[in-house]
Structures are given as C-alpha cells and as structure tokens.
C-alpha cells in the first residue's frame, strides 16, 4: 500500500451550473449512470491510493457521507473535511494538512474525468517520484479557460499561465496534481491573488522555480473532461454512455477497481451487484463475477 494519500476537492458553489446545483452539489450530479464524484474517486483508486480525504462544503457533507460512507465497501478509508468558503484550489492543502500528516498527496478535482488505457502507468510514474511534483498537460481547443503551459525554445516548461488572453500554447494543466509532503507548507506561504484566492498555479510555480516540477503531456489516447458547465456535463455523460455501450466496459467503477486490486472479495462484489440489481450497473458487476 502506498504512503501517498488522496484528496478529492468537491467543494465550491457550482454557480456555473445554476440552477441545477442550487439544491445539490455539482459533484453529486449524475454523469450518465453514476454520481460525478465516482470518476475522480476511481482515478485515485487506479493510482493505488486507499486513504482519501473528500473536501466538501459544510452543508453538502451529509449527502457525501450518505453516498460514499467510510469507503470500506471498496476497501478504502475516507475522511471528510469541510471547506467553509472556496478560497482557491491550493487551499485544499491547508484544509487537508492534518490528514496528510507529512505524506505526499495526489489531488484530483471533483468535476474532472480522466480516461485512457495508459492512465495507471503515467500515474505510477508520478507516484514513484519521492520529491517535487507532477502535473499533466492536455491539448485543448480553448486554452484560455485554463492554466496553460508555456514552453521555451528547447521545449522545456518555462511557466504556467492562469487563463491567459493570449495562450502561449494549447496545453492546459489538468485537475490532477501529485505533490510531495511540502505542499501544505508551501501553500501556507502563498499570498492570495487579486481575486482573493490561493492559486494552484502559484503553488506549482514554487516547484517549477526550483526545477522539481515534472509535466507529463497526455497524448491522443487520453480523454480529460471538465464537467463544470451545462454543455460539458452533457458531453461527459454522452462520452461515458458511448464508451460503455460500445466497449461493454464501465468507466469510473469503484467496485471493479477494488475487486481487481484485491481490496474487496467476491462476496463483497456480489453484495454490490445485488444492491444495484435493477440497473445495468448491477448487471455489469454480476458479470464480473461470472
């Protein structure tokens, strides 16, 4: 078992999805046949991480607990942390400092979906780095919406620019961050930005300045979906549905990952299949046993 711990940042107010998120957290919204948070949770599980903190708003936490429990049904240990106000992505490291207790971490944003045959392998490379950090660059058509990687003439990363009006490249930094145990202390030293937030880009720049930030580029064989708008939420659901029907395999299935890793046994998987027996999801779990 890895000593690296996981963080899912599932707070925020979800205003870009209003009015559908007025009464429910964005990360509890359905993406085809599963709650959105199943997908980032599965990403951390594919990295072999079993100790995970779920950061939510105080008023949404009860719903997350009802959905996910303590994680033991998947062989996990889940801790819940309240985020009183959304003050930047890097704030997650301050909120989770006690949970991390000096351990390296892998943080994934609660509205991000990752898919690709080699995903486990590229995360394993990031997991193996004892110090520094690793983030992932993904080629997008609209880089001005993201933190963008700027390269020098030799192709090395020069800086990361947050939502630039004139993007220096088409590679956006995805919402998956592997950082060492220094991340909370580094985040504490950061001054809030002009919009009053502790920016994740500022945190990454502290690693980049000392040459300890690795940026791996995801190629054509990967999909990265940010489900923060109505259109992207619909696109994500259609993508998951198409891939599931076409290949007959689930995307973001915690039970399957846990069973394949030996974290749960056949009896526990059978229990899950019975719980969801009236759905295609339940039939899929039953087929895994067959």
From TrEMBL:
It comes from the Bacteria. Transmembrane segments: none annotated. GO terms for molecular function: glucose-1-phosphate thymidylyltransferase activity; metal ion binding. Residues 5-241 form the Nucleotidyl transferase domain. It catalyses: dTTP + alpha-D-glucose 1-phosphate + H(+) = dTDP-alpha-D-glucose + diphosphate. CDD domains: G1P_TT_short (cd02538). Its EC number is 2.7.7.24. It is an enzyme of class 2 (transferase). Keywords: Magnesium, Metal-binding, Nucleotidyltransferase, Transferase. Its cofactor is Mg(2+). PANTHER family: GLUCOSE-1-PHOSPHATE THYMIDYLYLTRANSFERASE, GLUCOSE-1-PHOSPHATE THYMIDYLYLTRANSFERASE 1. Belongs to the glucose-1-phosphate thymidylyltransferase family. Catalyzes the formation of dTDP-glucose, from dTTP and glucose 1-phosphate, as well as its pyrophosphorolysis. This is Glucose-1-phosphate thymidylyltransferase. It comes from Roseisalinus antarcticus. The lineage of its organism: Bacteria, Pseudomonadati, Pseudomonadota, Alphaproteobacteria, Rhodobacterales. The gene is rmlA1.
């Amino acid at each position: 078992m890895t000593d690296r711990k996981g963080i899912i940042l599932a707070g925020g107010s979800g205003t870009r999805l209003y009015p559908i998120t007025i009464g429910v957290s964005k990360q509890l919204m359905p993406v085809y046949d599963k709650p959105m948070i199943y997908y980032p949770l599965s990403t951390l599980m594919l990295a072999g991480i079993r100790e995970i903190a779920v950061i939510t708003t105080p008023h949404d936490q009860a719903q997350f607990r009802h959905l996910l429990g303590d994680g033991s049904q998947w062989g996990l240990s889940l801790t819940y942390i309240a985020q009183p106000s959304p003050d930047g992505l890097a704030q997650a490291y301050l909120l989770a400092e006690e949970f991390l207790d000096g351990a390296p971490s892998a943080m994934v944003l609660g509205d991000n979906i990752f898919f690709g045959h080699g995903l486990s392998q590229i995360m394993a490379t990031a997991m193996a780095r004892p110090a520094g950090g690793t983030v992932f660059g993904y080629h997008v058509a609209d880089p001005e919406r993201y933190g963008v990687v700027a390269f020098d003439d030799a192709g090395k990363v020069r800086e990361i620019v947050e939502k630039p009006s004139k993007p220096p490249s088409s590679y956006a930094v995805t919402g998956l961050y592997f950082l060492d145990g220094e991340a909370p202390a580094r985040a504490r030293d950061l001054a809030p930005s002009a919009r009053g937030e502790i920016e994740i880009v500022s945190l990454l720049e502290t690693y980049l300045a000392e040459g300890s930030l690795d940026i791996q580029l995801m190629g054509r064989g990967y999909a990265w979906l940010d489900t923060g708008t109505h259109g992207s939420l619909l696109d994500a659901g259609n993508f998951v549905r198409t891939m599931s029907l076409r290949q007959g395999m689930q995307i973001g299935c915690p039970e399957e990952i846990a069973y394949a890793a030996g974290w749960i046994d056949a009896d526990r998987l059978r229990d899950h299949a019975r719980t969801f027996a009236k759905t295609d999801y339940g039939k899929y779990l039953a087929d895994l046993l067959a």
